[in-house]
Amino acid sequence: MVFQGASALALDAKGRLAVPARHRDVLQALCEGQLTLTKHPEGCLMVFPRSAWEAFRDKVAALPMSASGWKRIFLGNAMDVEIDGASRFLVSPELRAAAGLNKEVMLLGMGSHFELWDAQRYAAHEAEVMAQAMPDVLQDFTF
């Protein structure tokens, strides 16, 4: 399964996020609603279906000691959550603070997982990326 697209969403007062309808059935079938959230190096959160998380976790765990700081960031901050009966999952206060999440957020499908951004932070990040020169790897890419 490949997740794609952006969804503008709102965290509720308890820090819960409703899963967009287009992803609910797939996540239920793929991982029985079990997700894992962790920090992303660019200031957002990664939201993995549990099976995709396990593959990512195994790659991170196999990294050499020289990457121990990144192991701590990815594995030490990982939180397992479940989609509840109202199709929501809880984003812990620690992870909300780490990603600067306020009420308005963006959930971006990134293939095997999602990124969860504060809406204003994402808009600034996207503008910054668009202002940069296109990377060499994309120079010959056909649009």
Q: Could you characterize what this model shows?
A:
With 143 residues, this protein is of the alpha+beta class. It has one domain: 3-Layer(aba) Sandwich (Chemotaxis protein chec). The protein contains 5 helices and 8 strands. The chain has helices at 21-31, 50-61, 68-76, 93-98, 119-131, and strands at 3-10, 16-18, 34-39, 45-49, 79-82, 88-90, 104-111, 114-118. It has a 6-stranded antiparallel β-sheet. A two-stranded antiparallel sheet has the order 2-6. The longest helix is centred in the C-terminal third of the chain and has 13 residues, at 119-131. The mean pLDDT is 95.
SSE map:
Layout: E1 3-10, E2 16-18, H1 21-31, E3 34-39, E4 45-49, H2 50-61, H3 68-76, E5 79-82, E6 88-90, H4 93-98, E7 104-111, E8 114-118, H5 119-131
Antiparallel strand pairs: 1-7, 2-6, 3-4, 3-5, 4-8, 7-8
Question: What keywords describe this structure?
Answer:
143 residues, Chemotaxis protein chec, six-stranded antiparallel beta sheet, two-stranded antiparallel sheet, 29% strand, globular
- Span of the ends, CA to CA: 23 Å
Structural class: alpha+beta
So, the CATH homologous superfamily? Transcriptional regulator MraZ domain
**Low-pLDDT sequence parts:** none
Number of strand segments? 8
The CATH architecture classification is 3-Layer(aba) Sandwich
- Integer average pLDDT: 95
